[in-house]
Design brief:
Layout (H helix, E strand, L loop, with lengths): L20 H4 L6 H10 L1 E6 L3 H14 L12 E3 L11 E4 L6 H6 L3 H10 L5 E11 L7 E4 L8 E2 L3 E7 L10 E3 L27 H5 L4 E2 L6 E5 L5 E3 L8 E10 L3 E2 L25 E3 L5
Antiparallel strand pairs: 1-10, 2-3, 3-4, 4-12, 4-14, 5-11, 6-13, 7-10, 7-12, 8-9, 8-11
Length: 292
């Protein structure tokens, strides 16, 4: 029973690490994919997991959702239900990489780190934090429209990236992710309640932004991921289907990002003084060009 954040390399053989530049090539994104991301603010349909990896992570997720888990205190946040609507459920947590070997190693998944490395301009890649989002069948709650960086201004400069990966097939019926294409060009908006009113963010938008507010659904098969820019407006609607919608999120930033606060960056993490580089036990270097 240990805090796995002390280990900055894979623990299991669930995600084999390539041993040569040639072995890395299978994970590289194409130029067309990179251009799409920069134009629209997101890139979807990237396969990160095979069937075996999906099953292992589903099994681990079930254990992590137990509030009596002996390492529950290692979560930075743990919400059995973060929904503002008492009739719906949204399980949301941060910090499971510290507890589960499989989720710890998912951070070093070669398919993830190569794509993230490229999307961040092939700079060194550091871990920020992870999340779990689970919407049960029939009464799964919403994740309100928001921009991730509006919650992350305690770190600068803005050179972050989000990866959302499904452990169930996700579609419009069970509450898949939706994007507002090109909204990453709008600048930083106000910070709404993440599990509050779905359209709360609209109160802070301009007329032009509201005119361009055209949500696009991002259906994904289990094991596939979508990456998005830190200013991308995104959210997800309720799950009224007969199927669950479980997903994990990996948030990263480019090496060289610094703390913008003298307070805790995450609950339980020692303070990194304002102006100091983000590094150490909780923000490991995942990938850099000299590793290829």
């Amino acid at each position: 029973m240990r805090d796995l954040s002390q280990i900055h390399q894979p623990i299991t053989d669930l995600f084999p690490w390539p041993q040569s530049p040639k072995e890395w090539e299978q994970y590289r994104l194409s130029q067309d994919q990179l251009e799409f991301f920069h134009e629209y603010g997101y890139l979807s349909g990237i396969k990160l997991l095979d069937e075996h990896q999906i099953e292992v992570l589903r099994t681990e997720l079930e254990k992590l959702q137990d509030p009596e888990h002996p390492l529950n205190h290692l979560f930075h946040e743990y919400h059995s239900n973060e929904s503002s609507d008492p009739n719906t459920v949204l399980f949301h947590s941060l910090g499971h990489w510290r507890i589960s070997e499989a989720f710890h190693d998912a951070i070093w998944n070669p398919a993830f780190v190569m794509a993230a490395h490229q999307l961040l301009g092939e700079r060194g890649l550091r871990f920020w934090h992870d999340q779990l989002f689970c919407k049960p069948a029939k009464h799964g709650g919403v994740v309100a429209w928001h921009q991730d960086y509006s919650y992350w201004t305690r770190t600068i400069k803005m050179q972050h990236l989000t990866c959302w990966c499904g452990l169930d097939d996700a579609d419009e019926e069970n509450g898949c992710l939706h994007y507002i294409p090109k909204s990453h060009t709008w600048g930083l908006l106000e910070k709404p309640a993440l599990a509050g009113e779905m359209d709360g963010l609209k109160a802070f938008m301009t007329e032009d932004q509201l005119k361009d507010f055209n949500p696009v659904a991002i259906p994904l098969n289990a094991g596939h991921a979508t990456f998005h820019h830190p200013l991308m407006v995104h959210g997800s609607y309720p799950n009224h289907s007969e199927r669950s919608r479980r997903a994990f999120v990996l948030n990263v930033f480019a090496d060289g990002t610094i703390s913008n606060t003298d307070e805790e960056l995450l609950k339980g993490v020692p303070v990194i003084p304002k102006g100091q580089k983000m590094k150490g036990q909780f923000f490991p270097l995942l990938f850099s060009s000299n590793l290829v």
